[in-house]
Amino acid sequence: MLHIRYELTQNPKKKPEKDDPLTFGTIFTDHMFVMDYEEGKGWHDARVIPYQPLSLMPSAMVFHYGQEMFEGLKAYKGENGNVLLFRPDKNIERANNTNRRLCIPEINEEDFLDALKAIVKVDKDWIPEKEGTSLYIRPFIIATDPFLGVRPSHTYKFIIILSPVGAYYKEGLNPVKIWIEDEYVRAVKGGIGEAKTGGNYVASLKAQVKAHEEGYSQVLWLDGIQRKYIEEVGAMNIFFKINGVVVTPMLTGSILPGVTRASVIELCKEWGYPVEERKISVDEIYEAAKTGALEECFGTGTAAVISPVGELRFEQEKLQVGGGKIGQLSQRLYDTVTGIQVGKIQGPNGWCVIVE
Ligand SMILES: *Cc1c(COP(=O)(O)O)cnc(C)c1O
After folding, report:
1. Ligand 1 atom index nearest CA of 300
2. Of 225, 202, 207, 58, the residue nearest 144 (C-alpha)
3. Numbers of helices and strands, H then E, in the chain
4. pLDDT digit string (tens) for 233-266?
5. Nearest to 272 by CA among 254, 245, 301, 291
6. Cα of 139 to ligand 1 centre, how many Å?
7. Are the C-beta atoms of residues 200 and 185 closer than 8 Å to each other?
8. Beta strands in 83-173 (DSSP E)
9. Measured in whole angstroms, how far is the alpha carbon of residue 318 from the centre of its chain?
10. Separation of 205 CA from ligand 1 center, angstroms?
11. Mutation test of ligand 1: which of 302, 305, 306, 337 has the most ligand atoms closer than 8 Å to its C-beta?
């Protein structure tokens, strides 16, 4: 059991009203979890303290060489009032995979879960209850050595902050328009594409700005070497339904292994769909769209859960998918995953973890 010190706020903030519209990641709860790392001492001084600014040296390594990692998951208020997490073990496992790749010290899995439960419990009254809303949990680690040399830091901070978030879509599940990027790339095999870290996001901004200017909401990345095979979308993994078969890019080392992705694959298999994790060329999707074999396309990720895609833009060509409407499988997946998350639907063993 992780020993946690509590220093609770004397000035709780005003929580959003039940009917206030919630956006993504703009307001934060009353508290945060913090734990420090020092070489020789390990992770120590776990504490829940009021949400507040950090004090760091301008020379802190994270500012210069980007040694940092993050995770993202959500807490939900269940039907009978209990507080639920969706597959937190998957996020914890991935966090330590990221840590190993970035030379950040690992965190004991039970301690990580204790920390998640502790902070969510303290701020549980911040979990919004309207359908489609949840409390977004953002754990992250930063390198804090005050040093300008290049090497792994000897000191770190592990922090968890919380943000009440609304339904990702205001008017139900509206299909989004996706820009297939053929100039910039996000990651290559052997790089850090499969780690959840800020570096991948700063690499993506230029293409995202370009896509936005053209009226597209997200970028679909191709592989960094041949610019031929489909990888993933912004902060989501991508799925296609082609002639009744569910297809998603295999994890090659440059793709982020999403928890939602893994869950969707499991559910589709359980429902009897043939599921293929393999290389998918942009030409194949182009052909499938032209011949009508491309039945559905959707992104998967914690923020939006399932995000139907209505248009793919490749070079000068606009490919329409599903007649601008959400597909049957996309809708079923959305309903099932969100149902499991709030405990309305019984999911596979261990998917729903009760905080209290
Ligand atoms: C977090 C993330 C995803 C989605 O992962 P989930 O665990 O399903 O939320 C996909 N791609 C990238 C680049 C990500 O950072």
Report:
1. 8
2. 58
3. 8, 18
4. 989 999 999 999 999 999 999 999 999 999 999 9
5. 245
6. 14
7. no
8. 83-86, 134-143, 155-165
9. 28
10. 16
11. 302
Residues near 135 by Cβ (< 8 Å), separated by ≥ 6? 29, 74, 75, 76, 120, 123, 126, 127, 128, 162, 163, 164, 165
CA of 276 to the centre of ligand 1 (A): 19
Contact 51, 10 (CB under 8 A): no
Q: Residue 106: what residue type? A: E
Angle between helices 88-101 and 109-122 (to 10 degrees): 120
pLDDT digit string, tens, across residues 266-313:
999 999 999 999 999 999 999 999 999 999 999 999 999 999 999 999
Task: Return d(Cα 14, Cα 2) in angstroms, integer.
Answer: 30
The alpha carbon of 248 and the centre of ligand 1 are apart by a number of angstroms equal to 14
Among all chains, which residue has been given the structure tokens 């009897």? 272
Q: What tokens were used for 283?
A: 């030409």
- Say yes or no: CB of residue 196 within 6 Å of ligand 1: yes
Under 8 Å between Cβ of 251 and 324: no
Calpha distance 185→223 (Å, rounded): 7
Rg of the chain, C-alpha, whole Å: 21
Phi-psi region of 107 (alpha: psi -120 to 50; beta: other; left: phi over 0): beta
95-104 pLDDT, tens digit per residue, is: 999 999 999 9
What's the sign of the alpha-carbon dihedral 327, 177, 284, 202? negative
The helix/strand/coil state of 97 is helix
- Indicate whether residue 236 lines ligand 1 (CB < 6 A): yes
pTM of the model: 0.97
Q: Residue 98 and residue 105: Cα distance in Å, rounded?
A: 10
Q: Among the residues of 214-327, which ranges form H helices?
A: 259-270, 282-291
CB 177 within 8 A of CB 217: yes
